[in-house]
Design goal:
By secondary structure, the chain is of the alpha/beta class. It has 3 domains: 183 residues, 3-Layer(aba) Sandwich (Rossmann fold), CATH 3.40.50; 84 residues, Helicase, Ruva Protein, domain 3 (Orthogonal Bundle), CATH 1.10.8; 117 residues, Winged helix-like DNA-binding domain superfamily/Winged helix DNA-binding domain (Arc Repressor Mutant, subunit A). The chain is 48% helix and 9% strand. The strands form 2 sheets. A 5-stranded parallel sheet has the order 2-3-4-1-5, sandwiched between helices. The longest helix is centred in the middle third of the chain and has 21 residues. The termini are far apart. The structure holds adenosine-5'-diphosphate and magnesium ion (MG). Magnesium ion binds next to helix 2.
């Protein structure tokens, strides 16, 4: 008998076309984004009259269609412009892989020379740069030399620009493209951000330039997600493969969380995979049930949180350690003040200067966004109730994940584990 002998896997069960559920799949039509697309078009269409474009700051939480909308509109804009002899080149990168200005600039140069992102139209016949070893001035000079070889109009797409954090050198250099760098083409920057606060932290000059116009993509509501998921399900599954309530449940869970279409689609895909596997094994199942969705949610959640914790940046990890310690003592939900105090001790124990209270608080908020922590008074914000935080993941899971964190700074947390055990015993 061979390992791959047919055991029913090849029969038709639930999934017909798996690729439409993948994150990189580009849907033919964007559901429930008419208004936002219309706004976006208004910002881009002046180009068709040969007018300059304002720079655009496009912001909204992760998974609300910012990238897919940009990738839908810009090729169309370019084609329409070319029909009128207006030449446009597009250059797209995602800043999160590099996350410093220096590295992002090198990535822009290499993207212009050897394109990998779908929007990029430049393809200069020059060798790529290595990732290190050049003085910064030279790197910026090369970038503008490359841009001077492009069309009369250049649209630069900096996706996830917020991952540059406070390192705004690239953005600053771009604001000086005409004066300092003698760029002849018209340059439009589209900065896409998952984080609205990023804008506030930019130096004034950069902010004024980058955020000439702003476009907001709000989180999806449950009904929006139902439309998006229904359309995907039609393409992805055989008829009748979703029990009633399944799509609604995926949409409800995702909208209750962050209103992310990415999250909703991922949930449906995982649920479908669980159902498909079960269908292969048992002969009497041919649809996705609400239970599959709930199981899928648990699996995804656990995995996200564990990988999230393992990859936390240094201070975020210390903030989490503080909350974890307070939780093990039975002292959560805890106020920012108390968490901050504990965090300072932790940071010093690891030989680091603590961040300011505001800096540490940012990390608390981020971890709430990532589902690691929960702000229990969130809905009462602004009504005189202090923010209070607790773990949004079982203590045991957090401790395990912290012990496996990437930097290897944390040895073992047995003391914390014992303390947590004592605490539960006391509580019983
Ligand atoms: N309005 C929509 N209609 C159909 N699919 C959508 C829509 N908005 C987002 N998606 C899908 O959800 C996922 C996340 O969208 P994306 O544009 O990557 O979000 P963002 O860039 O805002 O994080 C993608 O797989 C995308 O195809
Ligand atoms: Mg995106």
């Amino acid at each position: 008998m061979g390992y791959f002998d047919d055991d029913g896997f090849l029969d038709e069960h639930i999934i017909k076309n798996r690729s439409v559920l993948k994150p990189e799949y580009k849907p033919e039509k964007l559901e429930e984004r008419d208004e936002e697309l219309e706004e976006y078009v208004k910002l881009l269409r002046p180009l068709l009259k040969g007018w300059d474009l304002d720079n655009i700051f496009l912001y909204g939480h992760s998974g609300v269609g910012k990238t897919v909308a940009t990738r839908t509109l810009l090729p169309d804009l370019r084609d329409t412009a070319e029909e009128q002899d207006i030449n446009v080149d597009l250059l797209e990168i995602n800043c999160s892989s590099a996350n410093t200005s220096y590295q992002s600039t090198i990535e822009l140069i290499n993207e212009a020379r050897s394109p990998e992102y779908p929007l990029t139209t430049l393809n200069l016949d020059k060798p790529e740069l290595s990732k290190t070893g050049y003085p910064a001035e030279q790197v910026y000079e090369e970038l503008f030399d490359d841009l001077n070889e492009a069309a009369d109009n250049i649209i630069l797409i900096l996706d996830e620009v917020n991952t540059l954090g406070s390192d705004s050198e690239l953005l600053y250099q771009l604001t000086r493209s005409q004066t300092m760098h003698k760029l002849e083409a018209e340059l439009c920057i589209i900065g896409i951000s998952n984080d609205f606060n990023f804008r506030d932290d930019l130096p004034a000059r950069v902010k004024d330039t980058l955020c000439e116009t702003e476009l907001h993509f709000p989180a999806y509501e449950q009904n929006d997600l139902v439309s998006i998921l229904s359309r995907r399900a039609e393409q992805a599954f055989y008829d009748g493969s979703t029990e009633s309530g399944v799509i609604e449940l995926c949409a409800a869970l995702a909208s209750r969380d962050r209103g992310s279409a990415r999250q909703a689609i991922r949930l449906l895909r995982k649920a479908a995979e669980l159902a498909e596997n079960q269908a292969v094994e048992t002969d009497n199942l041919d649809s996705i049930t609400e239970q599959h969705v709930r199981d899928a949610e648990e699996i995804i959640e656990r995995k996200l949180v564990t990988t999230g914790i393992r990859n936390l940046t240094t201070h975020r990890k210390y903030v989490l350690l503080a909350v974890t310690n307070l939780a093990a003592q039975g002292n959560t939900p805890a106020q920012t003040r108390d968490i901050y105090e504990y965090y300072q001790t932790v940071a010093r124990e690891f030989g680091r200067d603590p961040l300011t209270r505001r800096g540490a608080h940012e990390h608390l908020l981020e971890m709430c966004d990532n589902g690691i922590l929960k702000n229990v008074n969130r809905d009462q914000r602004g009504r005189g109730r202090p923010n209070k935080y607790k773990l949004d993941t079982p203590l045991e899971t957090v401790i395990d994940a912290l012990e496996q964190e990437e930097d290897g700074e944390i040895d073992n947390l047995d003391d914390l584990r014992n303390q947590a055990d004592r605490q539960t015993r006391l509580g019983e």
